Amino acid sequence: MGMKFRVLRGSHNEGKYPKGHPWVGRGICYVIGEIVDSASNLAKFNCAGPLGPKFQRIHDSMPATDKVQQGLDIAKQIEEDAVYDDGNGQGGPMDQLPPADNLDSMTLAELKKSAKEDDIELSPQATKSQIIDAIRKVYA
To answer: Which single residue of 12, 76, 130, 131 could bond 111 by disulfide (Cβ 3.0 to 4.6 Å)?
Structure first.
């Protein structure tokens, strides 16, 4: 095209994504560190001051940043993320987990009462963990 410049601060918009690209017609934005292949002399935007110049002239042998390919890669990743199946959809492993029973938070008296209501026979010396196991076994 013309001259090449590295963006030193801020950003620079130049050109549009081509036909056939997922972002066709959107402006191409170059950010700090990227190299712009510009038809105009961007050095005219440099000014003295505490922030320093905005653009640095680069030799023509340096390749420009391929924003079109970067855009394609980003669009492809977005599309893959949108259709990615992590297995937690309908019928996935999250659907197959047993419902939370809150048995661990119940007192021994509450557990004995629940077991009695469900006609679960317990020994008189049954511990809390034994009662929980017996209840869960019935509903497994």
So the answer is: 131
Beta bridge partners, 57, equal 5
Chosen domain end from 53, 82, 111: 82
pTM: 0.55
Instruction: Please check whether residue 35 is in contact with residue 58, taking contact to mean a CB–CB distance below 8 angstroms.
Output: yes
Q: Measured at the alpha carbon of residue 126, what is the angle toward residues 124 and 128, in degrees to the nearest 5?
A: 135
Torsion of CA 99, 105, 108, 112, to 10 degrees: -20
Domain of 22, in residue numbers? 3-82
The answer to whether residues 73 and 81 touch, using CB atoms and an 8 Å cutoff, is no
Dihedral of alpha carbons 83, 84, 86, 92, sign: positive
Going by pLDDT thresholds of 50, 70 and 90, the confidence category of residue 89 is: low
Residues 46 and 108 in one domain: no
One domain, residues 104 and 131: yes
Residues 33 and 78 in one domain: yes
Summarize pLDDT for 42-54 with one digit per residue, the tens: 999 898 888 889 9
C-alpha dist (Å) from residue 9 to 5, 13, 27, 39, 60: 12, 13, 19, 20, 21
